[in-house]
Structures are given as C-alpha cells and as structure tokens.
Design brief:
It is flat, with a radius of gyration of 18 Å. Helices cover 39% and strands 13% of the residues. The chain has 119 residues and is α+β, with helices and mostly antiparallel strands. The strands form two sheets. It has a two-stranded antiparallel sheet with strand order 1-4. Strand 2 and strand 3 form a beta hairpin. The chain has three helices and four strands, in the order αααββββ.
Length: 119
C-alpha cells in the first residue's frame, strides 16, 4: 500500500480555505469553525464514498481479540464522538478567555459540547 500525501492534502485544503473571498476577514474562531465544517464534510463524504464505517478493521491486520482503531474509533465512546462530530450533534469548543460578572478573567478549557443534551 502506498503512503498517500497527507501534507499534500493538508496544503490543498489550506490553500482552498485561504482562497475564500472573506477568509482574511474571519477571526480565529470563525476560521476554526470553517476548518471544522470542511474537515467533517470531507471525512464524512470519503467514508460514505468508500462504504466505510468507524470501528471496522479495513486493513485486516488485527487479531480477533483486538479492537479496531481505524478512524480513531478506539472504543464505543470514541466511535460515538466521531459519529456525533460527523453529524454535527457534537461540536468542538476551543479554549477561550472570559470575564465573569464580577470582572474576573478566567480561561475556559477546550472541550466537546453534545448539543443533543443542551437546551
């Protein structure tokens, strides 16, 4: 199996995003959202195109008692996370600073938000 060009793909996506008319005017959070949406869409389309599902060993090099790690699906929880991210039911929140009502500044750590559980 040949080693596909990860950096070529990354550079192509980067150039495509930078060529968007309003890319330079986006703040880092908005750029992150655009990258996130693009990556999820591409990942989902490729998996669908090749009839692939997270948690399946497509390389066929695992022993019968080993869990598959294809697409980073190391556990049911990881598989659920990937499915949630791909379907937009879970969103990634970057670390950010915030000021409390009392005027104290604090940092909110990066985390995932399951929008099925909120609201």
């Amino acid at each position: 199996m040949s080693n596909f060009g990860y950096y070529s793909i990354k550079n192509a996506l980067s150039k495509a995003l930078e060529s968007l008319p309003d890319w330079k005017s986006l703040n880092p959070f908005e750029k992150g959202q655009q990258i996130d949406k693009s990556f999820k869409s591409i990942f989902k389309d490729l998996m669908k195109q090749f009839n692939m599902k997270p948690g399946v060993d497509y390389v066929d090099n695992l022993k019968d008692n080993e869990q598959s790690a294809d697409f980073v699906a190391l556990s049911q929880k990881a598989d659920d996370l990937i499915q949630g991210l791909l379907t937009g039911k879970i969103v990634a929140i970057s670390e950010y600073s915030k000021v409390s009502k009392l005027g104290n500044q604090f940092t909110v750590r990066a985390h995932f938000r399951d929008i099925r559980k909120s609201g």
